[in-house]
Amino acid sequence: MVARRKVAVVGVALSDCGRVDDATPYALHAQAARRALADAGLDRSLVDGFASAGLGTLAPVEVAEYLGLRPTWVDSTSVGGSTWEVMAAHAADAIAAGHARVVLLAYGSTARADIRAGRRTGTLSFGARGPLQFETPYGHTLIAKYAMAARRHMIEYGTTIEQLAEVAVQARANAALNPEAMFRTPVTVDEVLSGPMIADPFTKLHCCLRSDGGAAVLLAAEEYVRDCRTSPVWVLGSGESVSHAAMSEWPDFTVSPAAVSGRLAFARAGVRPTEVDFAEIYDAFTYMTLVTLEDLGFCGKGEGGAFVEKGRLRVEGGALPVNTDGGGLSAQHPGMRGLFLLVEAVRQLRGECGQRQVRRRGGALPRLAVASGTGGWFCSSGTVVLAAG
């Protein structure tokens, strides 16, 4: 049996993000990919694996062609926001098994610019075929499904709307430390609650922003780490899980598939949630952050409200900094944002985040991080545990 190789993230980058009116999604893919390769200091010729989703008819084929790549390992797994954590897990497995040496994950979207230019409309539903045909006629939009789940948690556990609002307040506090965040002006709980209602109980600031932007992550086998200009961030363990397509098939609205993917990732990494220094969690809506914290084991089921209301998620003074760049609620959210979680986690572990840099007691840099993406309407989850080199 061939020994499995260790796998590290050796390069990460974002494209231009926020308001980008003069670029195509392909161009944002390319910009992020070039920057990630430059970050790693590796030659493009070493890239023999490529993964992408969300663009074109044959995403990895079309985007790879645009980038001038001819990969011998590809992945086009598309499970919404958790796509990139799942792809990172697949890529790490492929590299460890010797099926690839260096894998590039790339994403780019002009979701905001397309709406402004009239090239698309806001996504109210993902379609009305298959299982969705039984829900779409009754107004079950994406946001309505998340709102229903949040309301169930409030009923079951007494979670308050003020506690959910705290997630948005603390995300904005972290974004205030990030010069690249789209919105940095602090907000209060009252301001979150007084905003326009989008889907009860969510007002506008309970919901992610819409932006343009792209990201790229480069993973490599251990023997290439010494050739990189950056410190490696090792992939310790990962997990993935799917839950449901139809809301009627979801056994419990208060439990996300992160309860499974997180358990698998921590077990495979050989670490406990209490050892993690910070977390990057998919936050299309405030409830996603709260319930994912519970399901990853950072607090007990039903205790998420009390956990978040004490300022624990803040970079400055928080016991468990979460979404240290401001997250999808304040930094950027161009669609399937899971790749941005990995970029931020790696930058934090390498100590590159300036004013928003997470520090352990005594000022030391963080050692362990978790990135957990959620897809669809809590349909899928991918969780990755990372360690500083």
Automatic annotation (TrEMBL):
Gene3D superfamilies membership: 3.40.47.10
Occurrences of domain Thiolase C-terminal (ranges): 239-387
Entry-linked CDD domains: SCP-x_thiolase (cd00829)
Record-linked InterPro entries: Thiolase, Thiolase-like, Thiolase_C_2
Taxonomy, superkingdom: Bacteria
Coiled coil: none
Annotated PANTHER family: ACETYL-COA C-ACETYLTRANSFERASE, NON-SPECIFIC LIPID-TRANSFER PROTEIN-LIKE 2
Protein name in the entry: Acetyl-CoA acetyltransferase
